[in-house]
Amino acid sequence: MKRFMNISRIAVASVLLLFISCTPKHREMKPAVPSIIVSGVEHVDSWPDNGGLQQGSLHSEFDSVKYIRLETNDKCMIGEISQILRMGDSLLVVDQYVAKSMVVFDLNGNYCYNIGGQGRGPGEYNEIGYVHVADDGNIYVADRGAGKILTYAKDGHFVKESLLNAGAPQAFVVLKDSILLGSYSGYRVNAPYRLAWTNLNQVGDTLNTAFPYMTTRRYVAGEFLRGKDNEVLFHYPLNDTVYAVTDAKIEPYLSMGFYEEDELRSFIKDTEDLDDEDYKKVLYTSEEITNHIELFRCDNHWVVYSQKGSYAYISFIDKGRRDYIKSDVNKKKLYVPDNFSTSWHDWIIGYVNYDALDYLNKEQREDFLKSLSEACGSEITLDSLKQSNPVITMYHLKSR
Q: What is the DSSP code (8-state) at residue 364?
């Protein structure tokens, strides 16, 4: 489970190796001419100042925890979780790299059905990319190998496919009237960070494009968030701003406060001549630059994971801000062996990462496995975690 989404990026060194090994293959992209240029607004809200590291347990932020042991059989084996998506009373678990499958379970962990399958026929995919569940209940899947978007109904039935001129985006949302907003990596100096609007019902020329950020460094594309009141938000690496997307336009929405502008500008200038591998080594060891941010938008909270140098943090932000340190590569410390994957209202959903249990001492590990077994109603050992399907975790945030 190397691509865990949140708390359990257990050591920055291992994360560095992961990013180096997974550097995307460069491909020629036809430069996009932006029809929308992001401009500043008169006022952008900002997060509260850092509240300092909390001495208490991370669990003090939650009022309930639910563990779901996923059924294990030959139809639904999960090798590595890429995404977890909540669909009403069910969970869609995506495995892009090992089982290469999309499996639906109910909230008790019972297997329900698969979405599509690998192949070249109708409703089959070549290579699973990003998966999105839209407000209309449809499931949209990027087929990275074929450069298209597959559409399935909530019950798993195949609806249609849409071949995109620019290929499948690395992340996307589907808005009303089948408008797809996708983020593409910038592998050319004159086409970095492209956002593109496309009509899935009439695939052809791109409806609109935007360049929210310009740099010569080849970053992966940013991520979309769906949150309170169906807002569509967007953020991307080495940027201090969350953007709001409405009616085919994008504008600054919220300042995260992770970067000092002068320090960031100096860092980009000092590293612009480094190759990708040397750049990542500098990025992931810098004590000045926040090298990774993941956001979860809940109804009444922001939950934020960040990495800086050899430390990783989880922050809970509402009217105030509360920060917890999660891991220290030098001391090999870890507090919660879970990966957070997605948010749903005021729930944070993830899974138990058995690799992270190595960062607990023997007593802590035994206590955790005992509490996990009691919650699931059957014995769970480290070996059983490795040999069976993952245990899903659902944390409900306290109202403050």
A: H
DSSP H or E stretch at residue 280? helix 276-283
pLDDT tens-digit readout, 164-184: 988 899 999 998 888 899 988
Residue with tokens 């430069």: 31
Q: Average of pLDDT values for 235-248?
A: 84
The sign one gets for the Cα dihedral 228, 241, 92, 129 is positive
Strand order through the sheet with 36-37: 36-37, 208-211, 194-199, 179-184, 171-175
Percent of the chain at pLDDT above 70? 84
Least confident of 33-37, 216-220, 357-361: 216-220
Sign, Cα dihedral of 362, 363, 365, 369? positive
Look at residues 102, 246, 254 and name the one whose alpha carbon lies nearest to residue 181: 246
| Phi, psi of 178, deg, nearest 5 | 60, 35
pLDDT at 9 exceeding the cut of 60: no
pLDDT classification of 256: cutoffs 50, 70, 90: very high
Q: Which residues contact 86 (CB under 8 A, 6 or more apart)?
A: 92, 133, 342, 344, 347, 349
DSSP H/E element including 254: strand 249-255
Closest CA to 217 of 171, 170, 258, 268: 268
Question: Helix (H, G, I), strand (E, B), or coil: what is residue 105?
Answer: strand
Residue with tokens 């995506």: 94
CA distance 21 to 243: 30
Using CA atoms of 365, 366, 369, 370 in order, give the dihedral in degrees to the nearest 10. Answer: -150
> Distances in Å between the alpha carbon of 262 and those of 50, 267, 269?
19, 9, 11
Find tokens 């509490």 and name the residue.
371
Task: Output the six-digit token pair for 37.
Answer: 């240029």
Q: Taking 70 as the threshold, does the pLDDT of residue 255 lie above it?
A: yes
The tokens of 309 are what? 């140098």
What was the pLDDT predicted at 16? 30
- Helices and strands counted in the chain (H then E): 5, 29
- Report the phi/psi class of residue 86: left, alpha or beta, with left for phi > 0 and alpha for psi in -120 to 50: beta
pLDDT digits (tens, 9 = 90+) for 331-355: 555 556 788 999 999 999 999 988 8
